[in-house]
Structure to design on (639 residues):
């Protein structure tokens, strides 16, 4: 029972409609025709019974003289009229004493004998239907009896054959009419669905979506196919939205970076203000040295800014490339982190640490270090957008065995940065880093990356 | 006592013979031509229609009293005694009340005279077993062919008399004028 239903559910809308029309039309036609046939056959049998009884009575009336005057020849002649009706198998005429007087037998009857009973009544246990007529004339109430044996089953068989023929013709005509009709009806119903399916398919076959592979189903139902295509498109659209969000976050970072840059660039008046006090208090030589020093600082700051900007730009472009990808392999993670630290190691700009109140200003190398951490943070965010949980541990090991630990936990999309940078440790660490760079350590920053079950451990030997 | 026993035996024997005769007499002698003729006469009355027929038809027999007796027996046996009245006639009788008049072969010489007497009566159907009876102004004749009795009908004469014969009777008639 379930298998046909399952098969039906896999049919296309066109064939479903055709099947429904046929499954309604044919059984109803069958039932109606059967009812009409049954009624027709029973009515015909009833009519035939009446007709045979009338025929028997009329023939009996004609046989009265033959029976009264013992004219066997005339009686046989009258009975022979039954030969034109194939349904009449035999006719037996008995006289008043119950003796067989005359008889008629159809050609198809194998046994040709009338039952001669003493009481004049024949054996009625056979398959025939028997019609009898008592022959009388005026005051002669019983000249004899005529028994006519008919085989109505033959008539029924003929009618059944006729009914089968009629049903066959009707079914043929039904199919002939119903199929084009069902085709027309289904077109009006399934055309919008088919159009929608075609549109969905055209979207699905766009070159941008060709890389996505989906499981093929064996159904022909247009609605199910549309649903599948829309589901696939939804998943792809979701992935695109993730990429867009990741790109947006990167752009926000760029904007923040530019805002920071704008804040930190000192205007001409600010520089003039900072140096004017010392400038007027010193003598000419000191002033010249001071001016030279300022010029040197400015040149170096300019050069450092250009390098930093170039580095930041490269890092951003690098991250952007990864952000636009739908997935990142472990090899790519390692490569990205290593590149970030190599950039850090190549940074040869002298480091200046200045302290203004409780705020720390990090310049030069430290900025590059922060940028690395920012990059890793952005990378974590991109992983979070993809629903991946990562823990990244960064350990900076210095030569005096003091280490600085950073931990990035990419566990929640709500928290942008899950690592804390303690000021005291940062201070110490930055000093070490500066010391390393100045001494030109023969073992430049070696980066070891260990990945284990969503944990990335980065160890940088300073 | 001895005489009494002989008398009793004699009486029993007579009674037995009488009862046997009665029983045999009840049975219709189907091979008897006279019986068949009588039967046919009774049957003829049922296949002929008179214009002004009374309730009871009268069948008159001339020249054969035995046939008359058989007619009475048949009518009684077939329950037609109320519908048929059997009368024996002779030449001097009047035939006015007769519907069917049977003239026996033994009265052949008086036949013309009888037919002349009945010619004025429209309702009389004359029946006889005289040869070529229907050609002698008779209406229905019995003819013996191959030991069976057939009927000949002068239907035109019957029509003139206003007497109608059942078509079935005409159908089985050997000859119809």
């Amino acid at each position: 029972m379930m298998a046909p239903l399952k098969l039906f559910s896999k049919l296309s809308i066109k064939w479903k409609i055709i099947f429904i029309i046929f499954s309604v039309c044919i059984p109803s036609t069958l039932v109606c025709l059967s009812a009409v046939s049954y009624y027709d056959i029973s009515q015909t049998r009833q009519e035939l019974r009446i007709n045979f009884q009338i025929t028997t009575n009329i023939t009996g009336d004609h046989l009265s003289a033959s029976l009264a005057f013992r004219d066997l020849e005339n009686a046989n002649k009258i009975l022979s009229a039954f030969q034109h009706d194939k349904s009449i198998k035999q006719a037996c005429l008995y006289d008043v004493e119950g003796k067989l007087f005359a008889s008629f037998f159809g050609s198809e009857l194998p046994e040709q004998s009338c039952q001669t009973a003493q009481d004049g009544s024949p054996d009625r246990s056979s398959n025939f239907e028997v019609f009898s007529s008592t022959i009388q004339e005026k005051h002669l109430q019983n000249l004899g009896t005529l028994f006519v044996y008919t085989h109505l089953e033959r008539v029924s068989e003929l009618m059944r054959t006729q009914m089968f023929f009629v049903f066959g013709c009707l079914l043929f005509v039904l199919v002939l009419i119903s199929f084009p009709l069902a085709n027309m009806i289904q077109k009006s119903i399934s055309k919008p669905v088919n159009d929608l399916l075609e549109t969905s398919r055209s979207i699905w076959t766009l070159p941008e979506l060709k890389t996505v592979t989906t499981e093929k189903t064996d159904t022909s139902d247009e609605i199910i196919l549309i649903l599948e295509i829309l589901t696939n498109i939804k998943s792809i659209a979701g992935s695109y939205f993730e990429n867009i969000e990741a790109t947006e976050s990167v752009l926000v970072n760029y904007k923040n970076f530019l805002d920071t840059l704008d804040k930190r660039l000192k205007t001409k008046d600010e520089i003039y203000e900072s140096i004017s006090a010392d400038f007027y208090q010193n003598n000419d030589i000191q002033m010249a040295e001071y001016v030279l020093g300022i010029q040197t600082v400015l040149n170096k700051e300019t050069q450092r800014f250009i390098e930093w900007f170039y580095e930041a730009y490269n890092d951003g472009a690098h991250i952007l490339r990864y952000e636009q990808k739908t997935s990142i392999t472990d090899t790519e993670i390692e490569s990205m982190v290593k590149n970030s630290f190599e950039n850090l190691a190549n940074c040869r700009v002298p480091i200046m640490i200045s302290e203004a109140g409780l705020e720390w200003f990090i310049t030069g190398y430290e900025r590059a270090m922060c940028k690395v951490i920012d990059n890793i943070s952005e990378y974590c965010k991109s992983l979070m957008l993809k629903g991946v949980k990562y823990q990244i541990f960064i350990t900076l090991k210095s030569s005096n065995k003091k280490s600085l630990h950073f931990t990035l936990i990419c566990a929640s999309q709500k928290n942008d940065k899950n690592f804390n940078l303690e000021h005291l440790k940062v201070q110490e660490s930055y000093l070490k880093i500066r010391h390393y760079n100045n001494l030109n350590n023969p073992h430049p920053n070696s980066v070891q990356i260990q990945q284990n079950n969503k944990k990335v451990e980065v160890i940088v030997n300073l | 006592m001895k005489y009494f026993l002989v008398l009793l035996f004699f009486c029993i024997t007579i009674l037995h013979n009488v009862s046997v005769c009665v029983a045999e007499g009840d049975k219709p002698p189907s091979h008897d031509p006279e019986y068949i003729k009588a039967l046919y006469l009774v049957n003829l009355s049922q296949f002929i229609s008179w214009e002004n027929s009374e309730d009871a038809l009268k069948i008159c027999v001339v020249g054969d009293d035995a046939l008359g007796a058989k007619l009475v027996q048949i009518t009684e046996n077939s329950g037609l005694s109320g519908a048929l009245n059997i009368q024996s006639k002779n030449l001097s009788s009047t035939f006015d009340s007769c519907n069917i008049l049977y003239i026996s072969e033994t009265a052949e010489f008086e036949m013309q005279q009888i037919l002349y007497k009945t010619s004025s009566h429209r309702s009389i159907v004359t029946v006889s077993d005289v040869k070529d009876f229907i050609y002698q102004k008779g209406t229905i004749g019995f003819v013996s062919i191959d030991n069976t009795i057939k009927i000949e009908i002068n239907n035109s004469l019957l029509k003139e008399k206003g007497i109608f014969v059942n078509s079935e009777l005409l159908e089985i008639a050997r000859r119809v004028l």
